[in-house]
Amino acid sequence: MGCCRGRNVLLILLILQLLVVLERQVFDFLGFMWAPIIANFIHIAFLIVGIFGVHQYRSPYVITYSVWCLIWFGINLFIISLYLEIDRVTHKDDWLSLKTGHDSFWVKNGIGCKFVSPNNTVSGDGTVPTTIDGCLLKFEYVESIQSGAECILAFAGFWLGCWVARSFAEEDDHFDFIGGFDYNSAHHPPSKSSHMQMQPM
Question: Transmembrane stretches, by residue range (predicted)?
């Protein structure tokens, strides 16, 4: 009974993770953030493996998903440290777009963001520089919140996946087919005695 309840909770968590990563994938595509796009595709593949494992009661697939959750947790921690510029890493190094010069979708399309151009200012190449102002939430925080949500789901997925995989393994160990390995079973042939008694007919 506990296994079925844990299995259902893990299945709901997997579907929730799939929805969150698909939402993130859409915005990464809009911002041409190629490294996260590749990582999201890999994560989707492992989520499908996890869903199949939970649905088919396959412990190795659920364990594979759980191990991936640890890696995914680390990837998202790294993305958070990039956007919040923890230590020496920074998103300005352009590693997330694989050096193509693209920024996050949320840089220009954040909630409440407005383009402000200084009066009568023209740069050396003839373009008018603009700055983005008035955003309710900076894009660094939006990306960090998305990665933080992924971290929480990955952490929960790791522990729940380990528990469900263990439950599947315990059910396999306790399986006893008819007769099983019980030597006193009714289906076990009687043992032969070494002393046979001859009786007249």
Answer: 34-54, 61-84
